[in-house]
Every structure is written in structure tokens, then in C-alpha cells.
Specification:
6-stranded antiparallel β-sheet; alpha+beta; Aminoglycoside 3'-phosphotransferase, Chain: A, domain 2; 2 domains
């Protein structure tokens, strides 16, 4: 293993995806691999950098090295320095077309890459191999151009313009490069690919992914395995459901038909995931564990938002009622479902994105079967947020009736497609919605105190409803 050069540490700790900004970094390269540049103009290396500070985190850092500046990539330049053979320029890989094309080729050709030396020619000391995997039946494609999406927090996404074998433009591809790496599957990859393999169009079509093995002393055999990147069809010039819903609410436009269709799409997503991935009956132990986690979430929320403490007696009643009610089977779910995770695609309807799960939960937990009511509750909260955000911008007006109609329509659509009457699980659904609102309350208290009333009013409303026979 080796430390990282000063220039790389300085650059890494300024990136939005670097999670250790509140502490001194302790960075170490534990492995790396090289990919051949199809044009031969850059040296491409991908490093795995471990930050030992406090809670260890592993980062993926692709770099390209060139002997001349890359036109138009000034903002992606990490460092430049002189060596015996001349000047060298180091770039953030995703912004360099050489890395982008090499990554796409690795996926489409089921390519394999092996260990390379670390920065400054220090050997990484760790065995590492990366594998590309293309999705069966995906059409042959040719790289044309690439660009990086801006504004992402935890990943880096590259959009590819591609052409088919007849050189005609094809549907663009988006490849999500996972910056923080974890042992085990990434549910965004496995769930999207499972839906596509089952013939569902609920999610974007998968193109393929990259996996790697790297040394990890915390794993029984000393080797971790995980996803590095995931490519799927890119749907340009479309809006997410949040923007569509907010615009409809602002002009009092009826949204119930679209909300009902979203309920149908959600039920189809759950139905397909249940049919192709493991599921099982929910046991009393599962229920007890889940309800106890809700109590724990409340304790954490009340510690940060003291006004919530007064809800304790009423929430105990909600939790007891939920524990005594029937629960649906455990299965794979989206895990972080809200209006911002759904696209309105003309001629196709609603398309669901980002199956990575709730960001605050450990990756190992996000890959476990869960209660589909968690997704339903997340979408119900999202409709409530449309009304809440409108109320903040228009204090003398209200679209609460609009949101209530959307919530009912969404549930009706879900029931119609799934055949499962969610009213039989009302106590459980209320508990999940309150649990989500507690998560929101902590977020708002930390980041947007002026929005805190949105989740706290929802908690009050749900508690009052749960006390009504």
C-alpha cells in the first residue's frame, strides 16, 4: 500500500463526493488497475483510495495522464509537473474522453483490467482485478462523445453519445461511476437489471456494469467484491415527477390521473421484484425488529428536535397498533422512493430511477428484503411535501386538498394493480409514514429549519388519524 501524492489529497478533499471534510484525511492507495486508451493518447489508471480517518471509507479515483493539455478540460486538471521525459498533466478521469470511451468499451466488450502501480510509481501491494459485464441482448454501440453531469453529491455520472452499427445515433447512455465503494452488491445495479431481465419497462434499460475485487482484511477471505460503475439508457429532455407535480399544484391542475398511474407503476415495480428476487413471509421477529428501529429513530429525532418529545405517548400507541396488524411479505424494494426518483417520459409514462436505497442506511442493509409499504409511505410523504413547499411560498393559500386527492389516487392505483387492499395495512402504513417524517424532521432541523413544519404537521395529522376508529 502507499500514501497518495499531496496534489491528489488536496484535490480529493475538495470534491463533493468526499465525505470526510470535517476531519483530517488519512488516505492510502490499496489497489489500482489500468485501462488501455483506445486512441493511445492518455495513460488511464483507476485507484482505490482508503480514508482511514474515523469511519474508514473507500473511494474510486480514475485519473488520466497526458503529455499535452486536454483542450476544454481546464476545470478537470488536478496537477501538472515535469518529469524526465517532459511535462505531464493529470486529469479527473470522467472528464477525459479517453477514460470515458475506455470505460464504455470495458462494459460492452466484457473487458478485464488488472492491477497497476500506484501514483508516483509506488506499488499498491494489493491484488485487484476489474471486470466489465454487458447486459445480454444489448445492441452493439460505438462511442461518439461524452460529458459529465454536474451537481451530483456522491457519484459521478458520464453521459455518452453513441451510434449503432449503422452509425445512426442511438439512445444516449448514462454511466454512474460509484465514488464510495462497498463490499457486496449495489442495489441500483441489481434491481434495475432484474426489472429489465423480467421485461419490465418501469426502469431505464440496463447496458451493463463493472465489478472489481480488492483487498479487505475485514472480509473472511481477505477479498472484497463490489460494483464500480453502472451504465443504462439515458432519457434526456424529460422532467422528474416532483417538478411536474409542483407545477400542477401551483396552477391547481388536476393531478389525480397521473398520481393513480404512478400508483400502478409502483405496484408493477413491486410485483416484478417480488417475482424475480427472493422474498419471504414477514415473521413476528421481523415485525418486532422493524418497530424497534422506528422507536430508535424517534429517540434520535427527539434528541435533535426537542419539540418531538411530546409525541412519545401517542407514537407508542401507533407502534403497538402497527405491531399487532397484518404485514405484507418481505421483498426487494426501491428504498428511497419519492417524486424526485421518477421521470415523466412521453409515450412511456412513469420511469423509476436510482434504486440505491436510503443514503443513511448501510449498503448491506439496503440489499435485504424489506416491506413494500416503505416505498408507498415515501411517495405519500412526497405528495405532502409538494403541498408543504407551496404553503411556504404562498402563506395565505393552500393546496392541501390537492395533495390529499393525489395521495388517495396514488393508493387507489396501487390497489388496482396489486390487488392488495392497503387499507388492511393502514396502521402499518401510518407507522412507516411517521417514520419517514421523523427522518425528514431531522434533515430539516439540520439543513432547512424553515421547512420543519412540513414533517411535524404530518406527524400530528397521522397520529390524530390513527386514534380515529
Amino acid at each position: 500500500m502507499t500514501g497518495v501524492p499531496d496534489y491528489l489529497e488536496t484535490w480529493m478533499t475538495r470534491q463533493r463526493w468526499y465525505a470526510g471534510k470535517s476531519r483530517a484525511p488519512q488516505l492510502q492507495v490499496i489497489g489500482g488497475f489500468g485501462i488501455a486508451d483506445p486512441a493511445g493518447s492518455a495513460v488511464i489508471r483507476v485507484y482505490l483510495v482508503l480514508d482511514h480517518a474515523e469511519h474508514p471509507l473507500l473511494y474510486q479515483v480514475p485519473l488520466t495522464e497526458r503529455s499535452a493539455p486536454l483542450p476544454g478540460a481546464e476545470n478537470a486538471l488536478i496537477a501538472s509537473f515535469d518529469v524526465e521525459t517532459g511535462r505531464r498533466y493529470i486529469y479527473d478521469g470522467p472528464h477525459d474522453p479517453a477514460f470515458a470511451e475506455a470505460l464504455l468499451r470495458m462494459i460492452l466488450d466484457d473487458g478485464e483490467a488488472h492491477a497497476t502501480d500506484g501514483p508516483s510509481s509506488a506499488n499498491t501491494g494489493g491484488p485487484l482485478v476489474a471486470h466489465g459485464h454487458h447486459t445480454p441482448n444489448s445492441a452493439p454501440l460505438r462511442f461518439v462523445a461524452s460529458r459529465v453531469l454536474s451537481g451530483e453529491q456522491s457519484n459521478t455520472s458520464i453521459v455518452f453519445q453513441v451510434a449503432g452499427t449503422d452509425s445512426a445515433p442511438s439512445t444516449p447512455i448514462i454511466c454512474k461511476l460509484f465514488r464510495a465503494l462497498h463490499h457486496g452488491e449495489n442495489p441500483d445495479v441489481t434491481l434495475t437489471e432484474a426489472l429489465g431481465a423480467a421485461g419490465s419497462t418501469v426502469a431505464p434499460r440496463s447496458i451493463g456494469h463493472v465489478t472489481a475485487d480488492w483487498p479487505d482484511s475485514g472480509i473472511a477471505d481477505g477479498t472484497a467484491t463490489g460494483h464500480l460503475a453502472f451504465a443504462q439508457e439515458f432519457l434526456p429532455d424529460v422532467e422528474d415527477a416532483w417538478r411536474v407535480a409542483v407545477r400542477a399544484a401551483e396552477v391547481s391542475e388536476d393531478f389525480t390521473e397521473r398520481a393513480r398511474a404512478l400508483g400502478v407503476t409502483t405496484a408493477e415495480m413491486h410485483e416484478t421484484l417480488h417475482s424475480v428476487l427472493p422474498s419471504r413471509a414477514t415473521t413476528p421477529s421481523d415485525i418486532a425488529t422493524t418497530v424497534e428501529s422506528m422507536r430508535h429513530r424517534f429517540d434520535l429525532a427527539a434528541a435533535e428536535v426537542p419539540m418531538l418529545a411530546g409525541y412519545r405517548p401517542a407514537l407508542e400507541r401507533v407502534y403497538r397498533e402497527a405491531a399487532a396488524s397484518p404485514w405484507p411479505a418481505l421483498q426487494r424494494i426501491h428504498g428511497d422512493f419519492h417524486l424526485g426518483q421518477v421521470l415523466a417520459v412521453p409515450g412511456r409514462g412513469w420511469v423509476v430511477l436510482d434504486f440505491e436505497g436510503e443514503p443513511m442506511r448501510p449498503m448491506s442493509e439496503r440489499s435485504l428484503p424489506d416491506i413494500p409499504l416503505r416505498d408507498v409511505a415515501g411517495m405519500l410523504r412526497s405528495f405532502d411535501y409538494v403541498a408543504g413547499s407551496f404553503a411556504l411560498a404562498h402563506p395565505v393559500e393552500s393546496v392541501a386538498p390537492w395533495a390529499s386527492a393525489c395521495r388517495r389516487a396514488f393508493v387507489d392505483g396501487y390497489i388496482a394493480r396489486s390487488g392488495r387492499d392497503l387499507r388492511e395495512h393502514r396502521a402499518v402504513l401510518d407507522a412507516f409514514e411517521i417514520d419517514k417524517a421523523l427522518y425528514e424532521a431531522v434533515y430539516e432541523a439540520r439543513n432547512r429549519p424553515g421547512w420543519l413544519a412540513i414533517p411535524t404537521l404530518a406527524i400530528t395529522r397521522l397520529i390524530e388519524r390513527s386514534s380515529t376508529p
